[in-house]
Specification:
- The complex is a heterotrimer of chains A (286), B (210) and C (768).
- Chain A folds into two domains: 111 residues, Glutathione S-transferase Yfyf (Class Pi), Chain A, domain 2 (Up-down Bundle), CATH 1.20.1050; 158 residues, Rossmann fold (3-Layer(aba) Sandwich).
- Helices cover 44% and strands 9% of the residues of chain A.
- In chain A, strands 2-1-3-4 form a four-stranded parallel beta sheet. Chain A has a four-stranded parallel beta sheet with strand order 6-5-7-8, with helices on both faces.
- In chain A, helix 2 packs across helix 4, helix 5 runs parallel beside helix 6 and helix 7 crosses helix 9.
- Chain A contains eleven helices and eight strands.
- In chain C, helix 11 packs parallel to helix 12.
- Chains A and B meet through helix 2 and helix 4 of A and helix 6, helix 7, helix 8, helix 9 and helix 10 of B.
- Bound molecules: flavin-adenine dinucleotide and iron/sulfur cluster (4 copies).
- The site of one iron/sulfur cluster has 13 residues of chain C, from strand 19 and helix 11.
Chain lengths: 286, 210, 768
């Protein structure tokens, strides 16, 4: 199995932990991710001109050497998917192709890493790799952009792929009604107060569910829910203390990859209690 | 914002038609004002007009109200509205259509500023580095200094590299960003002719967000 | 004009402007001019269907100016019968009057095309029709005796009404899928707008059905198979076992008292028929009930059985069912205390399992109840149903009133988009509900989130205020879209009745023939024709009974005379084997037809190896003449279309669905009458492509279509032009026009390529 890999800007910045765990897990699973050379930012939600933004993603898809484009980020994924739909318009496609060195031809498909694992690799095969079933309760949090708008790979309201993944790793996905609610990430910088309020709702719901951790699929969600969790606690005067784990880290733990190699020490919300309960108390604090 | 009487001259049909013709806009005339968009929106309570009201104003062509409302800037692009609208309207796409038009008409607020900084960084480097972005944005938003401790906590975990991430070859970016300039020009020439004198005067001094 | 020559046919062509509907688009004068050399008289009128218009044709016939009439107007489905009965009165054999459709199939559907292309199409269609009408023979419809018995399918209020209204004059059989009569109405609490108790007004009717000597009532019964044809059906019924003989059981309940597993029970106290039944999934087969039953009514070994009944007419009254709202994922149905309105009603009805008490999952009364309207209705995204379900606005107000009545300080909230309370007594009902203190919120509920304590959080926008709101309720009632009962499609297919694109039975005419279907011996009433209240269901039940009685009253049914004629026969029997309806037999070494069994499907035509069989008025030569004339006015795509698909084209026309003006429909009784001779002729006369569009749902025919298509494709290959087969049901008019456009474009592109190649070839040979 081989994909063109589009890491997205965060992998080179705040999401170093995500990058480490992707590397550790995918190598062991034998899924080859070949990073696209000279890749560009997808424009996130801040390059306001639509044509430019579609063009940025068109370039990514065009330079993938005919392989499907795997990406770890919900935002990148959503942008790539939307661009693919927009590029069905032939006039737009031709206009954009004028600006591109390698022309977009519509032959490659974007895939989120979660989709790669759950659909292409398959949970049955993944199950065989589980060395240590994780006897914990986990909140499956997909974020708003993984399945929207209408990204066909899972439902935009009540997706199940991450639930199923958690189950496959021996953990219990809790019933969580905020699966696809917005974490506030996109407005964090410009409207922090509002953004923290959204994060609070999501974190409080997770807390109430009695879970040991929350599983995410996007570096922006992670930044908002992990790095900003303290700020949420301070602002609303509450205690949350909820470890936020990338799904790749969760897979890694079930495969008994050392937590350090998965970047679990790089979180702002400490993960040692969680690791301890996974280890049955042995490795607490490592 | 003070509300005004809707008069025949407040309706800019050229503006309305432009929006309806833009991607995802064709179904706007079928909005039945059910409000599921606004009810689903995580941030509609902060908007001066809810997404539903924005759609309604487009139906009427209330250009000034639409372009001056804070709605498009508060939207987090979560698509909750779009996936639930029973008429297949995409308020999210609408927000994205309106942003560049508002900016080309001189709307400047912190969101617009951030988007500008962001676009500039991407245009130059091809990639976004958090540190570079924040420092540039802080120049125009001094309040950002409060974020310093947060930045430090990231830095201490190795999560905020101070180096600038850059494409090895940024050759194509100019052409890509030029595509956008063309679209913006088009938008302007299309709405302006239909504009009434009064509209133009008011827009010379656009109301910025508080 | 050689007027004294008796063999000369005097064809009158009458073109209708239809106000401007046709006249504004098609240059009718030019059409008339193009017929100058055809030796016909032409007349153009504003409205041919008006009495003045009809009078003109009648006069021409009576004065001997016309002995064959061709009308160019709206679809024959609308006025053919009217015109033909006028012709008959004027002394002309009705089969010598035909209509060519230049409205639904031309002036309404080619907005995007050049005027000239629409005009040339119209000229072609009319010329083709002139050629056809001069070639046909006068036929007399066959008469068949009607069976004076009606099958009413569905024992809800609509079916009950139809049965009772009919039964004094005609024999009726009423079948019901459930073990009891009453449909949804027996599961209602009070009924709007008067709030009388549902079972109080319904029970007498159910008992009347049970006791009526003219009605045979069968529960747990469905239609398994339909044989025969209009007016004379033989229907196979399937009966699921009840394990208790209804006629013997006296409802003493001795059995239930002995049963160790609660498997034998009376559905509910007022159920008609009054008899116990067994739920086999619970039964332990211990036989305790059998031993104790004083009437020997129980048979644990009962099996599904079938029976057969012959009927002349069928009334479909299979009603509706609520859509399962779990597809609206943001509402998180099912969850404790989150119910559908139907479940809410049942709790307070004869079928109640809570002793007619409104209660939450924990048995207590809900103090705060929300009603969520339009759950799955008015949705144009394909997720829900496009239409408004009509009754929910009113029944939810009824339910809210009941909540307030049961507990004055309870809260009832109604979340609506538009409060639809039109009709007599309904605005007063709305006003009264407001007076009772029910809280109305204008806004479609955005999401419902179940809480830990089994309450429900409802999030919405109050659109009157432009403010988002969140509210906690003890109970939330979803008002789901109402859809046709499961199995409606299968039943309709068996009876040859088309459905609309919403899945409800299509009326013969939306406004003017609301309880007739497109099959003359099948009628419909109640919610199977679309969501409605009891009042309207009853009105339709009465109407349907009247229509059935009118139909049966004639005693005879006219059947179309377009049947096969056996011109030559070598006794090979191929046609006998081919006929799907056993209408042919070999007698004395020759094939003989029984016309009443024959449906005119035409399968025998291509089956005969010596081309000895032709369908009257659709012979190979007649079709070829028509094709030649149509294509003489410029190239086009020939589309052979059967009557069911023709109805889809009509709906496309009414909805102004645009398609290529290259399309030329040629109406045939069934596509199975076609063989390669006819298709090749179309190609030879210049058709750039040929399509066969079939709409019938009769499996006896559709199961042969693939083979027919393959054979035709092979036998017409030499022309290298596209041929395509497609199955389009009446409801699929959108698919139809999409298909026509794609095919026309394909055929056009191919034709262009061909002509370019030919030109090149010519140049080449010229150069040589
Ligand atoms: C929640 C709710 C509340 C309502 N409240 C009111 C009210 O207060 N007042 C009012 O006027 N109206 C009310 N209505 C509307 C009312 O229920 C309908 O108008 C009425 O029930 C329609 O009757 P029907 O016979 O057409 O259909 P149904 O009641 O659906 O009856 C159809 C019958 O056909 C049977 N059937 C289905 N398929 C087959 C088959 N293939 N073979 C044999 N049998 C079959 C079914 O089992 C059923 O018994 C309400 C509707 C709902 C959903
Ligand atoms: S959800 Fe759609 S139809 Fe409803 S108010 Fe919003 S835009 Fe209009
Ligand atoms: S996309 Fe924007 S407007 Fe729509 S629900 Fe999300 S935040 Fe609100
Ligand atoms: S009747 Fe009322 S609640 Fe029902 S679908 Fe129509 S508008 Fe919605
Ligand atoms: S037309 Fe059809 S039904 Fe009639 S005899 Fe021929 S094959 Fe049989």
């Amino acid at each position: 199995m081989k994909y063109s890999y589009y890491p997205g800007c965060a992998q080179h910045g705040t999401a170093v932990d995500y990058r480490m765990s992707v590397g550790a897990v995918f190598t062991r699973l034998g899924i080859e991710l070949e990073e696209i050379k000279n890749w560009n930012c997808c424009g996130v939600l801040h390059v306001d001109d639509r044509t430019t933004r579609v063009a940025l993603s068109a370039r990514t898809l065009a330079t993938s050497k005919g392989l499907d484009v795997a990406t770890p980020c919900n935002l990148c994924y959503s942008n790539l998917m939307r661009a693919r739909t927009a590029l069905e318009d032939v006039t737009l496609k031709n206009r954009i192709n004028e600006a591109l060195k390698t022309k977009y031809n519509g032959n490659t498909k974007p895939k989120h890493l979660l989709e790669v694992i759950v659909k292409d690799f398959g949970l049955a095969k993944l199950g065989e790799q589980v060395k240590k079933p994780l006897k914990i309760k986990a909140v499956p949090y997909y974020g708003c952009l993984l399945t929207r708008p209408g990204n066909e790979f899972d439902s935009p309201e009540n997706p199940m792929s991450l639930d199923n993944l958690i189950l496959c790793l021996g953990a219990e996905p809790v019933r969580y009604y905020y699966k696809t609610k917005c974490c506030g990430g996109p407005i964090l910088i410009t409207d922090e107060e509002l953004a923290l309020g959204l994060a609070r709702d999501i974190l409080m719901m997770a807390k109430e569910s009695g879970a040991d951790c929350m599983v995410v699929t996007c570096p922006m969600c992670h930044l908002q829910l992990d790095a900003k969790q303290k700020a949420v606690e301070a602002k609303f005067n509450i205690k949350i203390d909820m470890p936020i784990i990338y799904f790749t880290q969760l897979i890694g733990l079930a495969m008994e990859i050392p937590p350090k190699e998965l970047g679990l020490d790089k979180h702002l919300v400490p993960t040692d209690k969680l690791l301890a309960s996974i280890e049955g108390g042995k490795n607490a604090g490592e | 914002m003070r509300k005004e009487t809707i008069l025949p001259e407040s309706k800019d049909t050229a503006f309305r038609d432009l929006i309806i013709k833009s991607p995802g806009g064709e179904k706007i005339p079928t909005c039945m004002q059910c409000g599921i968009c606004a009810g689903s929106c995580p941030v509609s309570h902060e908007m001066d007009y809810t997404p539903r009201q924005l759609v309604r104003m487009i139906q009427l062509g209330l250009r000034k109200e639409v372009l001056n409302s804070n709605t498009v800037w508060i939207c987090t692009t979560c698509f909750s509205c779009s996936v639930r609208c029973p008429r297949g309207i995409h308020p999210t796409e609408l927000m994205e259509t309106l942003k560049p038009i508002a900016m080309s008409e001189g709307i400047r607020n912190k969101n617009a500023k951030f988007d500008n900084v962001f676009s500039d960084v991407i245009k130059k480097n091809g990639r976004a580095s958090e540190f570079l972005l924040i420092s540039k944005y802080s120049l125009s938003e001094p309040g950002m200094i409060k974020q310093a401790p947060f930045g430090f906590s990231l830095f201490s975990k190795g999560k905020l590299p101070l180096s600038v991430d850059k494409m090895e070859d940024t050759g194509e970016l100019d052409a890509i960003f030029k595509l956008g300039e063309k679209t913006e020009e088009k938008a302007e020439t299309k709405t302006n002719p239909g504009k009434k004198e009064t509209g133009e005067k008011e827009n010379a001094e656009p109301e910025t967000e508080k | 004009m050689p007027e004294n020559e008796p063999a000369q046919k005097k064809i009158g062509v009458y073109l209708c402007r239809c106000g401007g509907n046709i006249g504004d688009v098609i240059d009718l004068q030019a059409v008339a001019d193009s017929l100058k050399r055809e030796n016909v008289i032409v007349n153009i009128q504003d409205y041919l269907c008006s009495s003045a218009g009809q009078e003109k044709i009648k006069n021409d016939i009576e004065k001997g100016k016309t002995d064959r009439a061709l009308i160019g107007s709206c679809s024959p489905k609308l006025h053919l019968e009217t015109f033909r009965s006028m012709a008959k009165n004027a002394g002309l054999n009705p089969s010598l009057l035909e209509i060519t459709n230049i409205r639904e199939q031309a002036s309404w559907v080619h907005d995007k095309e050049s005027k000239e292309s629409v005009n040339s199409k119209a000229r072609g269609l009319i010329k083709g029709a002139v050629a056809r009408i001069s070639s046909i023979e006068a036929l007399v419809p066959l008469e068949k005796k009607l069976v004076d018995r009606t099958l009413v399918v569905g024992g809800g209020i609509a079916g009950i009404t139809t049965a009772l209204e009919l039964a004094d004059g005609h024999e009726v059989m009423l079948i019901e899928k459930q073990p009891y009569l009453g449909g949804h109405m027996i599961g209602l609490s009070k009924t709007f707008p008067t709030l009388d108790c549902s079972q109080c007004i319904l029970t007498p009717k159910m008992v009347a059905v049970h006791n009526h000597p003219g009605i045979t009532m069968l529960t747990q019964t469905e239609v398994a198979d339909v044989k025969g044809s209009a007016g004379d059906y033989s229907i196979t019924l399937k009966h699921s076992p009840r394990y208790v003989d209804i006629k013997k059981c006296i409802s003493c309940g001795a059995c239930a008292r002995k049963c160790p597993s609660g498997a034998i029970f009376l559905p509910f106290a007022q159920a008609v028929p009054q008899a116990y039944m067994i739920d086999m999934s619970k039964c332990k087969n211990c036989g305790a009930c059998v031993k104790v039953c004083p009437r020997d009514a129980i048979d644990l070994d009962a099996k599904e059985t079938t029976s057969s009944v012959s009927v002349g007419a069928v009334a479909i009254a299979t009603g509706f069912e609520p859509i399962n709202p779990s597809f609206i994922e943001e509402y998180n149905y099912p969850a404790p205390n989150l119910l559908t309105a139907v479940q809410f009603e049942e709790m307070l009805s004869a079928k109640s399992k809570t002793g007619m008490r409104l209660q939450k999952a924990d048995g207590t009364f809900p103090d705060r109840v929300a009603f969520v309207l339009c759950a799955g209705s008015r949705d144009f995204t394909g997720r829900g149903k496009k239409y408004c379900s009509k009754v929910c606005c009113i029944y939810s107000q009824k339910q809210a009133q009941l909540v307030k009545k049961m507990k004055e300080d309870a809260e009832a909230w109604i979340f609506y988009i538009d409060m639809r309370s039109a009709g007599r007594r309904f605005e007063e009902f709305y006003h009264h509900t407001q007076e009772k203190g029910v809280n109305y919120v204008r806004g479609k509920v955005a999401e419902i989130i179940p809480q830990k304590d089994s309450t429900l959080m409802v999030q919405y926008e109050d659109t009157n205020l432009g403010m988002k709101g969140r509210e906690i309720f003890d109970m939330v009632v979803l008002c789901p879209a109402l859809v046709p009962s499961a199995g409606t499609k299968e039943l309709a297919d068996k009876l040859g009745v088309p459905l609309g694109d919403d899945g409800f039975v299509e009326e013969k005419h939306v406004k003017l023939d609301p309880v007739n279907t497109l099959n003359q011996s099948v009628f419909a009433a109640g919610c199977v024709l679309g969501p409605k209240d009891i009042h309207d269901s009853v009105t339709e039940g009465i109407s349907a009974a009247h229509k059935v009685s009118q139909f049966l009253g004639k005693g005879m049914i006219l059947i179309p005379p377009e049947k096969p004629m056996i011109l030559e026969c070598n006794g090979c029997g191929d046609c006998v084997k081919a006929c799907p309806y056993n209408a042919l037999a070999l007698e004395g070494g020759k094939a003989v037809l029984s016309p009443l069994a024959c449906t005119g499907c035409g399968v025998c035509v291509p089956a005969c190896p010596i081309k000895g069989i032709e369908i009257r008025n659709f012979t190979r030569n007649q079709l070829k003449t028509q094709l030649k004339a149509i294509l003489g006015e410029g190239p086009g795509v020939i589309v052979f279309i059967d009557p069911y698909a023709y109805a889809a084209a009509d709906i496309a026309g009414v909805n102004r669905r645009q398609y290529s003006s290259l399309i030329r429909f040629v109406s045939v009784p069934s596509i199975h009458i076609l063989d390669a001779d006819v298709i090749n002729a179309a190609f030879e006369h210049g058709a750039s492509g040929v399509m066969l569009i079939e709409g019938t749902t009769d499996e006896k025919l559709t199961s042969r279509s693939d083979e027919l298509y393959k054979k035709l494709k092979k036998d017409t290959r030499k022309h290298k032009k596209p041929l395509r087969y497609s199955h389009i049901e009446t409801a699929q008019y959108e698919k139809l026009t999409d298909l026509l456009n794609v095919f026309a474009a394909q055929a056009g592109a191919k034709a262009e390529k061909r002509s370019r190649k030919e030109q090149a070839d010519e140049k080449e040979s010229a150069a040589e």
